[in-house]
Write a structure and sequence with these properties.
mainly beta, Thrombin, subunit H, 4-stranded antiparallel beta sheet, 1 helix, 8% helix, 49% strand
Length: 263
């Protein structure tokens, strides 16, 4: 028991020392999804979702569901794992135990769901590919709450919080509220991925990084960074949380501090 505790303390110390030395850690995975309030790291390899902390590693997989399309950890007590090919959404708890499963093939009227995000208690943001529109869906009562008018550009990615959903297209970013009304539009040829954390948003362009922040009118305004920020990476995955930007690049997870000026 004493040797186990000693090895754990040494392992924890080495991890902390590694992070503090170059603000990065080694992480070999297929996809990096983010970090929660307790600094647990979420990633997947060979379609197995992992949650890794300093003390343990949890996992979830279901080979019958196909490839993992996206993972939403905005609420670490209700994690969403979406499998687009089988139109299946799995809800997990904080120990990666399955809580619930939704099969979108049973929706009426039938439609193909391209993207899914959590929209608060009992609600989901769904992007309906058949009708090219964003939908707010009550999954407990199985009913459509609101939907937008058709989106003219193909939607490549979706970011959200409980009150707003941001559709990333080839021409920029369109923001909608829970009433299905457009509140903001960024016209920009951006590079994926996009980093978003409630009121802050960032992405790369051909000319460098750009950062935006929500104003009082719920519109994104371009902002400046007040802290030092390295712009050398072209990350494969991004995650923004609590003023920290996590960039996954060439099997390393880099951490940088982001502090934006208010618009």
């Amino acid at each position: 028991m004493k040797w186990t505790l000693l090895l754990f303390l040494i392992s924890s110390y080495n991890l902390i020392a590694q992070i503090s030395t170059d603000n990065s850690i080694s992480l070999s995975c297929d996809s990096f999804y983010g970090v929660d309030d307790f600094e647990s790291i979420y990633y997947s390899t060979d379609n197995v979702l992992y949650k890794k902390s300093e003390s343990k590693r949890l996992e979830f997989f279901d080979i019958q569901l196909g490839d993992i399309t996206s993972v939403d950890i905005i609420n670490p007590l209700k994690i969403l794992v979406f499998y687009r090919d089988t139109q299946t959404l799995v809800f997990l708890d904080n120990r990666l135990n399955e809580q619930q499963r939704l099969n979108f093939n049973t929706l009426k009227p039938q439609r193909f769901i391209e993207h899914v995000r959590l929209a608060g208690e009992r609600r989901l943001w769904l992007y309906n590919l058949d009708l090219s529109r964003l939908e707010l869906y009550d999954y407990t009562n199985h009913k459509l709450v609101n939907s937008t008018t058709p989106v003219k550009e193909p939607v490549i990615e979706m970011q959200s919080d409980y009150n707003f959903c941001h559709l990333i297209t080839e021409k920029g970013i369109i923001t909608y509220n829970t009433y299905a009304s457009e509140t903001s539009r960024i016209i920009e040829e951006l590079k994926l991925p996009v980093a978003f954390d409630f009121e802050q948003l960032g992405f790369q362009t051909d000319s460098g990084w750009k950062w935006y922040q929500f104003d009082k009118e719920f519109r994104f305004r371009e902002s400046e960074i007040t802290t030092s920020f390295s712009q050398e990476y072209s990350p494969e995955s991004l995650y923004l949380k609590g003023g920290k930007l996590y960039l996954y690049h060439q099997k390393r997870l880099h951490v940088q501090t982001i502090n934006l000026k208010k618009p």
